[in-house]
User: Fold these one by one.
Assistant:
Number 1:
Amino acid sequence: MDDTNRNNRKKNACRQEGTLVAHLGVAVEVRFDATGEKKIIRVKRNSGHVVGDRVTVDSDLLIRQKRKSQLTRMDARGKKHCIGANLDAVCIVAACEPLPPPGFIDRAVIAARAAHLRPILLVNKCDLPNSKQYEKELKKTYAGPVSLFILSAITGTGVDRFTANLSGLRSIFVGPTGVGKSSLLNRICPAINLQTGALHESRKRGRHTTTVSTLHRLKGGGELIDSPGFIDFGLADIPVTDLAFHFPGFERSHDTPCQFRNCLHRSEPGCTITSLLDRGRISQERYKTYLSILHELESLENELRYREKNKRRKK
Ligand SMILES: Nc1nc2c(ncn2[C@@H]2O[C@H](COP(=O)(O)OP(=O)(O)OP(=O)(O)O)[C@@H](O)[C@H]2O)c(=O)[nH]1
Ligand SMILES: [Mg+2]
């Protein structure tokens, strides 16, 4: 073996492939494929790495590999956040206490579908007396096109039925603070023992107990990511003409395209969605919600266009 080959072999020996399993701000934790061992590696605060990223580690240098998929949201100030990488499913956790902000579930379903991920709706805290009415409302709106599970992290109701669906998938829990994401993970895998936090007594809101996203292997196969709660699930990079396709409640329209490819389903002729609405096959409530999200996306597109124009003018 000549010197170059020997050096290359040495180099490759200290290169290891792995998965980013926790993001700690200025450091990340990587789990190596070959040994299963974990190592903390320092990174810049805004490195852009997220839990689920595939990485190559060369001594203390971290090289991120191309992502197969990612889930992104936009916060109230218009900043985009990648929440997880190389995912298969997004488990949207909701509860009757604290209730998610209006539109949260719809936006989460749309963001998941737009990223080619399977949305799963989890209605946690079914042991609470006021859960029944909430479950009924969510079932009416989402059950069918979106897989929906009613469960309780406290009593364990419905948890096995849900976890039977996770094998072989990498899923992420998303939801507002206090809905019970970490409690559910603890129920699924008691050994993980994540910190959970009681709701504020008077306002019945969560306390942002989880501050770091972490990826966990499940006994029955599959992986689950616990993430910190957040309330703004702004949609990022979804063209207005794609919105209806991802919108929960419009699935009936998928088989019959509208007359115009760029139809926004307001008053265009030959529109499948308004026709289904007229025949009562799409509910007024779903249509109204669609229009409000459409309006929001249009305003965002206009703002981005305006900013681009200004940038070009300044150059
Ligand atoms: N009654 C009832 N309470 C629950 C259930 N699941 C979680 N809780 C309670 O809800 C509170 C919040 O739970 P967490 O698991 O910390 O919620 P989280 O969604 O992880 O919150 P963040 O980490 O802040 O995003 C805790 O007091 C839990 O005991 C449930 O199924 N039923
Ligand atoms: Mg938590």
Note: The longest strand covers residues 15-23.
Number 2:
Amino acid sequence: MAKVSVMRILMGFAAMVMLLEVVAAVDHTVGAPNGGWDLSTNLGTWASSQTFTVGDNLVFRFDSSHDVVEVTSANYDSCGLGSPISTTVSSPATIALTAAGSRYFVCGRGSHCNQGMKVQIDVVAASAPAPPQTPTPTVPSPPQTTTPPSPTPPTNDSPPPPPTGETINPPSSAITLKMTAGTILGFGFLVMMLLPL
Ligand SMILES: [Cu+2]
């Protein structure tokens, strides 16, 4: 019986890990949602609207009048097609972003690159647990014996005064991350409880 419980916990944990991986890797469909890998999409604007993180994928979807050529920075600037890093002619072309740094993609057909069908992808490192830092010395706060709080009438319906000098607006991405982690944990435990054994 104990063995079964351990199995259940392990499987639930595995489900959580898998979910985390699914959430962590993002597929960026180039130009989406309002455009694509074509001549009419402002690919620079699209790229700057995205955050490319190591582990994400680029997905180029295109018709047969285009292809995807990964080139060097120099060739990107000049639309040169010599010695390409890779060439993909069939859609979709999925490019794994495996390292931090810049990657350069152009269309190799006709003069499409010179017409603007090119995109630079700046990949940032995945947010990892912060490396161990030298502990900041905790400065003991001086005893606050100065002004006592202004006496507020003890009414029950007066809301507490807002805390001053404290920012309570963390970046929305942090909120999203926490919510996602919470959702994953909750879902993982749900899976753990529902696993047929
Ligand atoms: Cu093209």
Note: Strands lie at 27-29, 52-53, 57-60, 68-71, 86-88, 93-96, 101-106, 118-124.
Number 3:
Amino acid sequence: MSVNRRDLLRGAATAGALGLAWPLSSRMTVAQAEEAAAALGATWDEAPFTLGVASGDPVPYGVALWTRLAPKPMEFEQPLEDTVEVGWEVAADRGFRRRVARGTAAATAALGHSVHVPVSGLEPGSQYYYRFHALGKVSRVGRTRTAPVGPVRRVRFASANCQAFHDGFYAAHAGIAREELDFVVHLGDYVYEHGQVGGNPLRDHEGPEVLTLPSYRRRHALYKSDPSLRDAHAAHPWFITWDDHEVVNDYSGTTPALQARRSAAYQAWYEHMPVRPDHPSTPRIHRQRRWGDLLDLSILDLRQYRSAQNLPDGTILGADQKAWLKDQVTGAGEAWHCWVNSIMLSQLAKPGGGGYMFTDQWDGFLAERKEVLTHVAQSGLEDLVVITGDWHSAFVDDIRPDFADPASPVIGTEFTAHSVSSGAYSPEWNATNGPKMGAANPHLKYFEGDRYGYDVYEVTPRRWSTHMRVIGDRRDPRSPVSTLTTFHVDRGRPGSYEDRATISSPAQYRRR
Ligand SMILES: [Fe+2]
């Protein structure tokens, strides 16, 4: 491998020369930005479909298709007419001989020439292929799938989170692209509004343009220059939520200063995600999706409606979403119930006492967490599994309505996944603090912070299995993927257990 973007950027940061290496630097012309991106290994699909294709939000009779025309991804303004007609087609076969749907959509400059096509009239539980046409060119072919209805014996899906471009290559997404999956879930920190490379903040070299829509667009475009990310989108339909870095670190609320920036960031996110047509600057993310009678997903938005943290009456969900989530719990049927949760739900008390490690997560919203989890316990909901990102390390936790009370019943399991590339703590920090976090948190069963990757969930009526897939080295785009360990939850038996075959795998903490 001749190019390694992590070491290249770290070297430039150490030399005080990030402005010469970081493609989004305000000091660069477009030609220099393109050159800098290429030096970091950026590649693009053939124009105008440089950013690839994607599908998302599969339901039984439809799915959303996405692309964005960006002939010059590093330009602030694309060299395109104000409105460009984009053709789309869906077929049952990769050769498009059995075409089942087709149409056109207008890609407009107002929405960055993105298109979001809500395809309907498809068959449940079926695989499809799709592609786009525009300006005499045809896009790559994407593969997608609709949700099944009725009895389902197995679902396999993956989650990804935290993919700082400057921290490494997306070998994890290459792994996801190769997996046999029904769908993918993204748990947030899809892009980072800034970066920290070798201790130097990239933002200092960029100027204020990161606050604006064109600058957020360029950031998304740069992230999609990693071919493994485009491959993972083209291989499977995705459900997507977000965390803070799609806008700015640890944000909450809507102060006037934040409002304009948030709107720009939300719109750029919308323009680059395979979601249904929506209001670009206030998209509705939270929703319930079903995979037959086997799995109910409650996809949460823990950013858009939250108050500030550490308030007695603070909210992470917002009143409407909280009422909605409680309704999902009350009305839950026999399926596994999974919360797609960007940021850690379980308590993480500081070793040695004195509060919590981070109160940007649910630990900053104690009353609401207790209210919602007490509702879960009282409703008799069984088989709650929460899947989480954000932490850049893997955790497995028992969920209790009152984490401070060991007599409080176990009502579910939280799996927090490794990051795709975003930097974790050092091996020294993990070795020292893993056991301390375990001692301070009786519900914590497992911690591993030295690796990068993604989780694969394999769910049957009787058992939920979480396979922690890890890559060898995020500096290598072709780094091989292996399974670090597997945890199971048996239906009707609260709590998880580790697979015997991998119980001796490396970790910094295990409750024995
Ligand atoms: Fe992150």
Note: The chain has three domains: 5-39, 53-145, 155-188+285-510.
Number 4:
Amino acid sequence: MLSCRSVHKVYATDRGPVDAVRGVDLEVAAGRYAALIGRSGSGKSSLMAMVGGLARPTSGTILVDGIDIWSLGDSAMARFRSRRIGYVFQFQSLLPTLRAIDNVALPALLDRSRSRGDVYPRALELLREVGLGDHHDAFPSEMSAGEQRRTVIARALINEPALLLADEPTADLDEQTEREILALLTGVNRDRSTTLVLVTHNLALAGAAEQVVHIADGAVVP
Ligand SMILES: Nc1ncnc2c1ncn2[C@@H]1O[C@H](COP(=O)(O)OP(=O)(O)OP(=O)(O)O)[C@@H](O)[C@H]1O
Ligand SMILES: [Mg+2]
């Protein structure tokens, strides 16, 4: 499902180049739950951004579902991201002027082949699955942080992605909510065979993963 080969990321900064990711080789099989752990600044988010098609690697190859994603043109990449990858990131936000259900429906409505009549019932079903059936017409400002995160998860699932990427999705939430969000993500992995790559600082959460990948100084620790 996911294959990283010799992936590097160098950021140009005023202080000179920063080697954030230094030759990562990584394989995650389809349907797996992999946890990425490592100290702050070790390069986890940089790697996730490249895997998710959001930041171009300085060098190396990333295959998702057998496709060399960084060889795609802009519009093919946008389509691939929207159809195949779901994102749940820490400070990712909902569109403030849209109700929960509209936020969830939006990525599917961008796909012209799908109609509102098909998308909205599915969006409502997903909101129910994440425990927000009663909040479907709430605006983000009317929801708690945990409710907003659950809405982000529902939104990430509307296009039935093959790969779900979660970068510290619970870092700013209390422990109970953290467990609930994690149960949601691992439930998606189990019930839909969606490949899940999760970045976490929480070793207990990482311990439940089928594959634990340690990152240190921009590389995978063998
Ligand atoms: N846009 C950027 N420009 C310059 N340097 C960056 C940029 N993003 C990250 N870095 C640097 O790259 C390194 C890796 O950062 P990254 O955010 O990938 O780490 P991380 O493992 O996700 O850390 P955390 O656990 O704190 O989220 C750090 O030294 C960071 O300062
Ligand atoms: Mg990070």
Note: The chain has seven helices and ten strands.
